[in-house]
């Protein structure tokens, strides 16, 4: 299924279905968040603050759409808060959201999961705010795998396709596909982003196993097409003999492909992408990149919001939900569609 994109806003709000006033006869029910004391909820209408990392690319915009669609289905109110990749701004937003008594739930995608650990796993629970987490784990759990991505004090974690194991498997497959001496460059997002950290760790794992897979540069960006272009242009100019280029998000890859074309290395450089958006599918089909690895931004937030709604209604939800991934190659690109 091909999910529609959305225009992002710094803070958008909508009320999907008019919510009934709180039932005076309602008895709040316990919601298990992995602490000694459960969070009590379920009577007031569900009002969710979506604390997204930013809104400046198609992945993030697909997350917004997934959250909106799920909120509409469960009759919840949703507001989106955009800190534009700033951990400090996002932390301040969290303080205001939790203390402002306007929200009883948070969908958290925190730019610095360690900085936000206490406020999301302790303070929010103390104030009766239910927290669901997507994509970016909390509390120094970014390099964990499976169920260990979930942090006690929160309802759940949805994601995993950008965890350490997933990136390790992906980059190992690239090294195995390209034996012998290789001159490699890597493009990632911001420093504190867990996807960046996991990519760095995966590269270390691969280089230990394949020392001839030599990474000569790692470049940081804000995940945008613009920085993908601006920051790779001098890289390609200085290294025309580069063999392999790895990017952990498709919008950055798009900018890098433009830079590779500008510098005349597109036909000699093997480009590998993680993200699998519509542009990446086209790039595989046209031969601009070797392959792309799909992720599911829409499914992450859609699932997390639906689980928030289920827990609010008294249902048990899983601590950890893994989204899906697959490799899109020239051989199978015509048999699949991008999710965003």
Secondary structure layout plus pairing:
Blueprint: E1 11-15, E2 29-31, E3 39-41, E4 47-51, H1 58-74, E5 77-81, H2 87-99, E6 105-108, H3 117-126, E7 130-134, E8 156-159, H4 164-177, E9 182-188, H5 194-209, E10 213-220, H6 225-230, H7 233-238, E11 244-247, H8 250-263, E12 270-275, H9 278-286, E13 291-294, H10 297-312, E14 320-322, E15 327-328
Parallel strand pairs: 4-5, 4-6, 6-7, 7-8, 8-14, 9-10, 9-11, 11-12, 12-13
Antiparallel strand pairs: 1-5, 2-3, 13-15
Rounded to the nearest angstrom, the distance between the terminal CA atoms is 9 Å
Q: Strand count, sense and closure of the main sheet?
A: 7 strands, mixed
CATH superfamily of the largest domain: Response regulator
Strand pairing plus helix content: what structural class? alpha/beta
CATH architecture of the largest domain: 3-Layer(aba) Sandwich
The tally of domains stands at: 2
Mean pLDDT: 92
Instruction: Give the helix level as a range of percent.
Output: 25-40%
CATH fold topology of the largest domain: Rossmann fold
Number of strands: 15
What does this structure look like?
It is a single chain. The chain is α/β, with parallel strands linked by helices. The protein folds into 2 domains: 11-159 and 297-323, Response regulator (Rossmann fold, 3-Layer(aba) Sandwich), CATH 3.40.50; 164-294, Response regulator (Rossmann fold), CATH 3.40.50. It has 10 helices and 15 strands. It has helices at residues 58-74, 87-99, 117-126, 164-177, 194-209, 225-230, 233-238, 250-263, 278-286, 297-312, and strands at 11-15, 29-31, 39-41, 47-51, 77-81, 105-108, 130-134, 156-159, 182-188, 213-220, 244-247, 270-275, 291-294, 320-322, 327-328. The protein has a 7-stranded mixed β-sheet, with helices on both faces. It has a 6-stranded mixed β-sheet with strand order 10-9-11-12-13-15, sandwiched between helices. The protein has a two-stranded antiparallel ribbon with strand order 2-3. α1 (58-74) packs parallel to α10 (297-312) and α4 packs across α5 (194-209). The longest helix is centred in the N-terminal third of the chain and has 17 residues, at 58-74. It is elongated, with a radius of gyration of 21 Å. The model is unreliable at 1-21 (pLDDT under 50). This is Bifunctional carbohydrate binding and transport protein. Residues 48-316 form the Periplasmic binding protein domain. Residues 1-21 form the signal peptide. Belongs to the bacterial solute-binding protein 2 family. It is found in: Cell envelope.
